[in-house]
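Weekly modeling sync, notes
Attendees: S.R. (lead), two postdocs, one rotation student

Agenda item 3: backlog of single-chain predictions. S.R. asked that every request posted to the team notebook include the full sequence so nobody has to chase files. The rotation student volunteered to paste the first one in as an example of the format we agreed on. Action items at the bottom.

Example entry:
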Amino acid sequence: MTETAETKPRKKGMLIPIAATLILGGAGFASTYLGLWSPAAMLSAPAEAKAGPVGDQPEFVDIPTIEIIIPGGRARSLILSATIESDATHKGQVQHLMPRVSDAFTTFLSDVDPSAYDKRGVLEIIRTELVGRTRLVLGDEAVKDLLITEFRFK
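Predicted structure, as returned to the notebook:
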C-alpha cells in the first residue's frame, strides 16, 4: 500500500513540466508560423543598412541666437540657440524663412510668464512649443526636429 501512495504524487509532479514544455513549444511554433519572429534570422548575420536617397540625410540649419530680457524684479535675460533638423530638399526653404522662425520664437519667449522659467521641466515645454511654431511656419515635412543647443540666463 505504501508503494501506490508514493507513485501517485510522483506522476503528478512529472505532469507539470511535461505540460509546460508542450504549451511553450506550441506557443513558440505558433509565433514562428505566424511570422512574429524567425529563428533563421536570429542565427544569420545582420543585414547591411541600405543607403537612403540624398533627401533622407539630415541637414541642420542654425537659428540665430535669440536674446530677450525677461520682465520682472530681477534683471535677467534669456539666451537661446537652436538648430532645425531638416533634409536636403527642404534646407533652402528653411533658410529662406528663417526670419519668420526667429520672429515666432521671440514672440513666444517674450510672452512666457517670468516665474515659469524657474519651474522644473520648463525646457521640455518650451521645446515642444517651439517645435509647434516651427512646423506652423515651415510645414510638417520641412521640420524633422528642433535641437536646443543653448538655453541659459544671463
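Discussion: group reviewed the output briefly. The chain has a mean pLDDT of 85.
Action items: rotation student to repeat for the remaining queue; S.R. to check formatting next week.
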